[in-house]
Amino acid sequence: MAEKNSVIYFEGIDDLLICFMEEEDTITTEPKYEAEVHRLPIITKLGVKGNGSTKVKYASSKVFRRVSKEDKHDLELEHVGIPIKILDQMKALTSNRGVVFTKGVAKSNPYFALGFIGRMENGERMAVWYPKVQLNDATELDYETTEEEDDIKDVKASFSAGCLLFNEVLNGAFDSTRKDTDQISLEEFIKVPMYKEEQLKK
């Protein structure tokens, strides 16, 4: 068990979590998600890039207030493969006899919650839920011939995570090293997409 003020090192990223939205949120209504959370052991690397900005207000030639805001994260995933059924659902594609067609028309991809789990030393865990995510249509693929040596090629996927309209939550983050007296477990946190404090009530 880690001490409260000790430094705990990140060891590696574990599983990817996907849970599709059944109904999108609005200003007055919460999002509704499917019952199933897909837990996929496929991640080799996940990059997160925010769009944070800071505005400074001056008064009487002095800094009166500094205001920061971040309402979007770009997620760059390198993985060994997403199950085709899940990938088709991310793209709103329906298979007909094993074939799908991509059209060059404007569309909005479905929303889903995306999460991931991380391992830290001493058996500690962290996890993050992004409750409103879309797959970006921009695709980057490399097709290569096989070689004599066994080599599993990574695949890349790009996602955009935004804030919920309902409560402006961009993400929820769990860290077992916080050691709150009534802390929830990792299993409770990843059971459903976490997007509001009311979900933490017993």
Tell me the span between the first and last alpha carbons: 24 Å
Spans of at least 5 consecutive residues whose pLDDT stays below 50 are none
Rounded to the nearest angstrom, the radius of gyration is 20 Å
Q: State the total count of DSSP E strands.
A: 11
Oligomer: single chain
Structural class: mainly beta
- Total helices: the number is 2
Helix content range:
under 10%
Strand content: 35-45%
Mean pLDDT: 86
Name its key features.
mainly beta, 202 residues, 9-stranded antiparallel beta sheet, globular, 11 strands
What's the arrangement of secondary structure elements?
Blueprint (H helix, E strand, L loop, with lengths): L9 E14 L8 E2 L4 E3 L2 E8 L2 E7 L2 E8 L2 E8 L4 H7 L21 E9 L4 E11 L19 E8 L9 E4 L10 H6 L11
Antiparallel strand pairs: 1-2, 1-3, 1-8, 4-7, 5-6, 7-10, 8-9, 9-10, 9-11
What does this entry look like structurally?
It is a single chain. By secondary structure, the protein is mainly β. It has one domain. It is built from 2 helices and 11 strands. The strands form 2 sheets. Strands 1, 2, 3, 4, 7, 8, 9, 10 and 11 form a 9-stranded antiparallel β-sheet that branches. The protein has a two-stranded antiparallel ribbon with strand order 5-6. A hairpin with a 2-residue loop joins β5 (53-59) and β6. It is globular and about 65 Å long. It starts with 9 loop residues before the first strand and ends in an 11-residue tail after the last helix.
